[in-house]
Amino acid sequence: MGQAKSWRRADVAPQSSQGAPSQMDVTLLPQELLVLILSWVPSWTLVTVGRLVCRQWKDLIDGPVLWKLQGERDPSKREAFCAALEAARHCPRMEWARVGVLQPFGRNLIKNPRGKDQFQHWQVSHRDDICTDGISICQKSQLVDLVKEGLWEDLLDSFQPDIFISDCQPLHPDLNCSPDPRSGHPHEPWSCTNTLVIVLLAADKNSVITSIFIPEWNVPFQQASHVFRKYGPGVRFLQFMHIGNCTGAEHTAHITDSTVLVKLSR
C-alpha cells in the first residue's frame, strides 16, 4: 500500500479554496479549439461583443475560418457562404465579419419581393389623377441601401460587383389586377403592362451614377432582367421602381419576385 500513488482525473478542474472549480482562461486554448468554440456563438454577438474582447478574438472573427464553420453547420447559411467564398477570390480585402452577419452575396436584397402584406417595405403611389381611357397607373418603389445590406465602400468603388436585376409578370389575372367595381363589369378583360426603372445613386440619394429603363412587357411570366457592370465608383443606393398600367382594373399588376442580387463573378 505504501507504493500506491495518488491521482486526479485530468478532466476535473482544479478546486479553489472554497471548493468551487476555478475559471478556465479560454485565451490559453489552442487557436483551432478556440475558433471552434467561437463558431457556436451567434453571429451578431460575435461582431458586437466578441471582437472587443482582445486582439486574438478580433483576428479570428475577422477571418474566414470561423464563418466557414458556421456556414457548413447551418444549411440556411451554406449558400450565402459559398457565394462569399467565390467573392473572396476576386476581393482579397474581404470584410468577413460583415459578410458573415449580413450575407450580402447571393441573397435577394429586395425586402418582400412578392409584395405581400399590403406591399410592406414598398412605397406605393397611385396616379389616378392622370388616368385616361380606363388606364390606371401605379408605381411601387424600394430604396436599397447597399452598405446597410452588407457591402462596403471599398468593395463598391474598387471591385464594383455585378448587380443583377429582375422582375416578372404573374400568370393569373387574379394575381395581377382586381376588377374595378366602378366599371360594372367584374369580368371585364384585363390588360397590364409593366416597366422597370432601376437607378444607382450616390451617398446623397440624389446624384445618379447610372440607370436603366426596361420597356413595357405584358406576356405572362415574361422576365425582365438586367446586369449592372463596371458602373463606376460612388454607388451607395439602388432605387428599384416597378411601374404598371392596367385597363379595366382598379390597381395595376402586382410585383412578383422582384430581385436585386449582388455577385463578384468576374
Topology:
Layout: H1 31-38, H2 43-48, H3 55-61, H4 64-73, H5 75-90, H6 96-102, H7 116-119, E1 123-126, E2 135-145, H8 153-159, E3 162-168, E4 191-201, E5 208-217, E6 223-228, E7 237-247, E8 259-263
Antiparallel strand pairs: 1-2, 2-7, 3-6, 3-8, 4-5, 4-7
Summary, kept brief:
The chain is 24% helix and 24% strand. The protein is an alpha+beta fold and 266 residues long.
Task: Walk me through the structure.
The chain has two domains: 26-102, Monooxygenase (Up-down Bundle); 116-263, Galactose-binding domain-like (Jelly Rolls), CATH 2.60.120.260. It is built from eight helices and eight strands. The protein has 266 residues and is α+β, with helices and mostly antiparallel strands. The chain has helices at 31-38, 43-48, 55-61, 64-73, 75-90, 96-102, 116-119, 153-159, and strands at 123-126, 135-145, 162-168, 191-201, 208-217, 223-228, 237-247, 259-263. It is elongated, with a radius of gyration of 27 Å.
Keywords summarizing the entry:
disordered N terminus; 5-stranded antiparallel beta sheet; single chain; 2 domains; alpha+beta; Jelly Rolls; 266 residues; 3-stranded antiparallel beta sheet; Monooxygenase; 24% helix
